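Lab channel / #folding
Pinned by the channel admin:
"Please post every new chain as: sequence first, then the structure tokens as a reply. Keep commentary short and put observations after the output so the thread stays searchable."

First post following the new format, from NK:
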Amino acid sequence: MRRALLVTMVVGLAAGCGDGSHEVAVSLTHSAAAGLDPLAPEVGVVKVRFEVNGPGLHDDVFMDAPAGTDAVTFKGFPTTEDVNVRAMGLDAVGNVVAFGRADRVQVTEDVSLQFPLRRNLAYITHQANAGQAHPERVIYLVDLSTRALVSKLQLPGTAPQARGISARGGDAILVTYEDGAEGRVAVISADDNSIETFALPRPQELTLGVAGQPIGVTVGGSRITFVDLDARTVVEEFARPVGGRVLDGVISADGSRALVVVSASPGLVSIDLVNRTVDALNVVPEPSGVALGRDGRVAYVTSSSDGEVAAVDLDTGRAQPLGNFARPVGQAAYADELDAVLALEADTGEGPGRTLGFIAPAAEALRVGEGVQTLAHASAIASDGVGRRALVVAVGTSTETAGLTLVETTATTLPNGASALYPVDPDDRFRSGTIEVSRRYQPADVAIVYGR
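Reply from TO:
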């Protein structure tokens, strides 16, 4: 269930913000469901920061409002295109514990827009383990600030096993899974955690889609399938097979194009969701990861052979090499505030891993420090909606050493991070002598609401 907030505020742009003539009115909704309400006392929001960020030097503005603010109207905003509007729920020490956004808003006249403010939560899938109570069927919801388990969900079906997970903006989490011999997609509502599913022609690995656009794409199982995420149905299966295990994937902010990294040739495929065509791209040797940039128009592809990074314009398909990470890397995410690609160091099988950084804009492209240490066998990384934090999930060397690493990034500091053991399951327990012990699952993949 959604409910509106409480207070309305009106502000004018500060001097120096251009010769504006338009109003940008922003209003928020939010869930009232247990564990999802961003204004619940345990979340700790003390104020909401509203931002309107335009492409020009003097068309950015922000305002801090009390927790519970319903709406803000920015007066005197200049005529411009591709404005990004954000709302951040901040706690007492400045952590972003709730977030909402609308991208690529056209300010050619007065604009009114509404979007949900969401609690900053990570949804995490798990590896199968015959000695545990089917962790592959369970989705954890973890608070990004505290890394504490908030709640857990069960995939529907008789023998479900999660394969891949992604965020559909602030609307839903998409889980691609197998139920016996059948492939399915679960659409988890970010409003109330209700789950609707639909069948695929075959088992596949990853589904990508954006809020407000019905057509998405599912990849894996040597096929590409176009799906309608609103109607919960398959639209069309691409005629030619595309082999290899899915390693990573992103979709443009407008939902028109996806880039998917696969383990077999061609390695990187570009999927046009409008014309429903698929093309192979030769961008870097042995592509291993892909991250979507802050404007949703540029993707950054990484290499597992030499750490090369290349930028791909999603509108034109043109690629530009940028340089190299210090070491070969795997799956990637994007840190908006640092304007950098974060990538997992290729797993050597020895000791802890690292998350490496690379400043992305071509004019300033460079490696960032020596990276952030993670726990052993990191399997996935995802950035939050604001682009300030990334969460790394690690299998560890056993169930006892599985865990999470929270990577912090800002525009003025090198990435830093802290690791913690994975939360134990509150329901899966066993008796060791006279003591009842909770089992710890091993995380497999992660998606963050509004994240990329």
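NK: The domain at 2-118 is CATH 2.60.40.10 (Immunoglobulin-like).
TO: also worth noting, The first strand starts at residue 2 and ends at 4.
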